[in-house]
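Please, structure for the following, as C-alpha cells.
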Amino acid sequence: MDNPDPLLSELCSICHVNPPKYRCPRCSTRTCSLPCTRRHKLWSQCSGIRDPAAYLKRSELATESAFDRDFNFITGVERSLERADREVENRGIDLARGQLPTGGDGDDAQETGPGRKRKIPQQGLVKGEAGFLRRAEAGAVTVIRAPRGMSRNKLNNSRWHPKHKCLSWCVEWISATGEKVLKNCLEGQAIAEAYDRGFPQPKQEKLDLESSKDEKPLQEGDAAQDSADTASAATPVNATESTEGLSAQPSASEPVDPSAETAEEKSQNLPIGPHRGLYFYLHRPRTTVKKPVLVPLAPLMTLAAALRERTVMEFPTIYVLPDSPETLLAEKDSSTFVLEEEYIRIVGPEAAAEKLETEQHETDAEASGLPGSSVDLQNVDENKVLEVLKQDLFEPET
C-alpha cells in the first residue's frame, strides 16, 4: 500500500482523526484543536497550567526552556501580587499598614522599607484596640476585657475619635424597667448631655416642663417674682462661668496641667441631683454581693471625670433610676440595688480594695498575653485549702 493508515499514537488523543498540533503544559497530552483541548481538560480534570515544581533531570535544568519556565513563574507571582494590591485598593480594604506616630517605641515595630515602620499586631487585639486601651489607661480607667467572641466583647465599639481628639465610649444605659440601650458618648460630654442626646425629650413633656417653670413664680407672689428676676439677671454670668469651666477641660491627647486637674476635681465635686426627674448611677462590676453596686453621678459631671479611677467591664454601664441616693439608702433592705458606700461598709474597705487589685492583676495578665484562667498562688493560705478538702472528703453521708 502506498498510503498506509496512521497509527493512533500519531493522531489527536481526543478525536483520533487529525494529527496533533498542541501539547498540554500540565500533562503533555497532545490535541489537534481548541475544542479537543477543552474536552481534554473536562474529561481529565486538568488545569492546563504548567507545574513549576515538576521534576526535571539535571540535563534539562541548564536549558533555555527551563530558564523560561522559571522566569514565567516569577513574573506570574509578581503579577498576582500587583493584581491583589489593585483589587484591595479598589475595594477599599484596610490592611492595617499604618505608620507609627513620631517618637513611637521602636521595640514593637519592624522595618518594612526605607524610612517606614509597621507595628507588629499585638496578640489578641484588633486594629485600634491597643490605642484605645492606652488612652483609657492614661485617663485612669481600668478596662476589663471580656473573652474574645463573647457578646459584651462584640458589642463594644468604644474607640478613639480622631475628629474630637478624645475617647468615644460605648455607654450602656439601663432604665428602671431593665431596658438596655447602647449609645456612644464622648468623654468630654456631661452625663445629662449624653443622656439627652441619646434619649431626646418628648415635645409634649418639654412644653409641660417649660409651662410649669413659667407658672411657678406667679404662684409664689411678688417677693418670689423679684428673687426670680434677680436670679435670671445673674444667670448669664453663671452660665458663662460653667461653660468656660467645661471648655477648659483638656482632651486625652493634651498634657495635663495643674489647672486642668483643678477643673476635674470641681467636676467630681458637683452636687448630685435629678435631671428630668431621673438620677444617674455608674455600675461597679465584679463585686462580692448579688445586687448591682451603684455609684451616684452628678448630671453635670463629665464622663471622663465619672470614669476616672474606676473599673469597667469592656464599657461603662449607667443606671437611670427615678430613686435618689437617699431613697436607695433608706430602702436598702428592700431595694434591688446597693450604693457603693453601703457596699464598702458591708465588706469593709480592705476587701473592696483587694477586689480592685485582683481586677487590676487580671487586666495586666490579659494585656501581657497570659491566659485569662491563670491564678496567682503566692498568697493562697494552704491551711484553708486543706480544711476545705477535708470537709469535701470526709463529709458524712446523709
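The mean pLDDT is 74. The longest helix spans residues 64-91.
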